[in-house]
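Researcher: I need the complex structure. Ligand is S-adenosylmethionine. Inputs:
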Amino acid sequence: MIIIYYLVLVILGLTVVVTAVVSIYVVVNILFILFVTQVPPVQTERQHFNAIFSQFRINSESVIYDIGCGGGNFLMAAAQFEPKKCVGYELSLFPFLQALIKSWFQGRGLARVYFKNFFRADLSDADFVYVYLVPPLLGRVAQKLKHELKPGAMVIVKGCPLPEISYVNKITLDAKRDYYAFVYKF
Ligand SMILES: C[S@@+](CC[C@H](N)C(=O)[O-])C[C@H]1O[C@@H](n2cnc3c(N)ncnc32)[C@H](O)[C@@H]1O
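Model: Output:
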């Protein structure tokens, strides 16, 4: 009888802890989306990586940035090509922590993740920049890329095209769901 009593207490206790942790996670994420980033930390699906890396020909001399790297899946995949530099910026707390932890185990010692606003980052040495954000931010992003990137730098934007810059290629990620990515050469 007493064992059942303790078991019920343990299960209740665990339920309370798990509910509290999940609630804190969800609430903090929502607060970051509402008041800091305006972008949900949705990650690019892994099945789209091949299409993206068929455009980004990363080699040991490449410098690649993921501006708004979320939980870091794309950045870790890029690190597998062993580029010279592989940097992600993320401004939402839990996605940043996720990406940071992944960088220790999956980043090949190359992936670097910073808790930083990418609008304040210097991208002038980039060969490749990956962008998966929301349309209201893309105007500012386009301006930054236009002013900062060196000739020859390549940008892929998942979702919507950048305003006022012509893309050189449009790749289909998932035709049924209308998912495209736009390739830019500066
Ligand atoms: C849609 S997610 C994409 C994540 C990742 N790039 C991928 O494709 O898997 C966009 C991320 O950008 C982050 N973000 C938005 N604005 C940012 C900013 N100014 N500086 C850094 N990160 C930002 C958001 O917190 C979010 O996690």
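Model: Summary of the prediction. The chain has two domains: 1-37, 46-185.
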